[in-house]
């Protein structure tokens, strides 16, 4: 009997130590990143680096496809492509959320899908960032409320800036459902090409969708006026800075402060006034429909 218990304990221990598919994926990803870094350190040709990057991404895409299975969301393809744009730390697109992106076209709606386990590992890596501006909370529900999550998870060369949060009805079966309106930008000021972004967590799956706002977000005169006035003030300070032989630092700082304040005032105005605009119900309906479809309705 003692031998039987010993064997059972050994088998249980080996099962506990067996690597999960997520562990295997992370190990393969980290090895690919390390191998590419080593090639960069040895001054490998750009063509060789590009080939190694594409080969490794293709292998990781296969692993993720096996891990996630087909996507079953209305109006989206069943198969996706890897969300990681690069495995080289020197490239834009490095460090994005581990998952697959599903889209019919580059311009249309897309969904990035992953598992809670991979999402939580990714968030832990962001919590450990040395750069404070890149840090994110490890709690998935808290992270989904932040612009920085979307900028780093599904964006590569621009920041995501929220205009407002939608008041969604959480779809049946979903654990978390978050929706917001915003846009991608590299500067302050109005963003006229806005996106509806929706995140749904259901069981082990995390889905993050973005779709061009339909209808387009209207310009609201009062908000435009706030930005126009702020920009005019900032331009005067900027001209003073450029016209100064000593490049007056105070004028430079004042220009940036005026732009930053104008940007904040503009967004606050949009967040307050847009829900009263005739276009808003359709935007809310778009967000709700995305959330419902992602939850399987």
Helix content: 40-55%
Shape estimate = globular
Mean pLDDT: 92
Main-sheet strand order equals: 1-2-3-7-6-5-4
Largest sheet: 7 strands, antiparallel
> Radius of gyration from the CA trace?
23 Å
Q: Would you list the SSEs in sequence order as H and E?
A: HHHEEEHHHEEEEHHH
Specify the structural class. Answer: alpha+beta
Query: How many β-strand stretches?
Result: 7
How many structural domains? 2
What share of the residues does DSSP label as strand, in percent? 15-25%
Taking the alpha carbons of the first and last residues, their distance comes to: 53 Å
The low-pLDDT segments are 3-8
Structural write-up:
The chain has 297 residues and is an alpha+beta fold. The chain has 2 domains: 69-217 and 284-294; 221-276. It is 49% helix and 15% strand. The protein has 9 helices and 7 strands; from the N terminus they run αααβββαααββββααα. The protein has a 7-stranded antiparallel beta sheet with strand order 1-2-3-7-6-5-4. The longest helix has 25 residues, at 249-273. The protein is globular. The N and C termini lie far apart (53 Å). Mean pLDDT is 92; it is low at 3-8.
Task: Explain briefly what this protein structure is.
With 297 residues, the chain is an alpha+beta fold. It has helices at residues 2-17, 21-41, 46-68, 116-127, 140-143, 147-153, 221-242, 249-273, 280-294; strands at 81-82, 100-103, 110-115, 159-165, 176-185, 195-202, 205-212. Strand 2 and strand 3 form a beta hairpin.
């Amino acid at each position: 009997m003692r031998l039987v218990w010993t064997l059972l304990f050994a088998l249980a221990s080996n099962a506990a130590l067996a690597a999960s598919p997520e562990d295997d994926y992370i190990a393969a990803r980290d090895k690919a990143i390390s191998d590419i870094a080593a090639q960069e350190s040895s001054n490998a040709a750009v063509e060789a680096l590009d080939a190694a990057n594409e080969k490794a991404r293709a292998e990781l895409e296969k692993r993720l496809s096996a891990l996630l299975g087909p996507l079953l969301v209305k109006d989206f393809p069943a198969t996706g492509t890897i969300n990681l744009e690069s495995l080289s730390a020197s490239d834009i697109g490095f460090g994005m959320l581990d998952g697959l992106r599903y889209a019919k076209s580059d311009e249309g709606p897309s969904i990035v899908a992953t598992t809670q386990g991979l999402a939580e590992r990714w968030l832990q890596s962001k919590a450990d960032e040395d750069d404070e501006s890149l840090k994110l909370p490890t709690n998935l529900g808290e992270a989904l409320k932040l612009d920085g999550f979307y900028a780093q998870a599904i964006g590569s060369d621009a920041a995501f800036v929220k205009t407002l949060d939608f008041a969604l009805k959480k779809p049946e079966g979903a654990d978390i459902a978050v929706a917001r309106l915003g846009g991608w930008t590299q500067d302050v000021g109005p963003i006229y090409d806005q996106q509806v972004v929706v995140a749904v967590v259901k069981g082990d799956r995390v889905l993050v969708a973005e779709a061009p706002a339909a209808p387009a977000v209207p310009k609201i005169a009062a908000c435009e006026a706030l930005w126009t006035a702020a920009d005019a003030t900032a331009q005067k300070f900027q001209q003073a800075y450029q016209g100064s032989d000593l490049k007056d630092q105070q004028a430079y700082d004042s220009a940036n402060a005026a732009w930053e304040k104008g940007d904040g005032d503009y967004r606050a105005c949009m967040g307050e006034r847009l829900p009263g605009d005739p276009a808003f119900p359709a935007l809310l309906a778009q967000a709700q429909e995305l959330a419902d479809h992602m939850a399987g309705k």
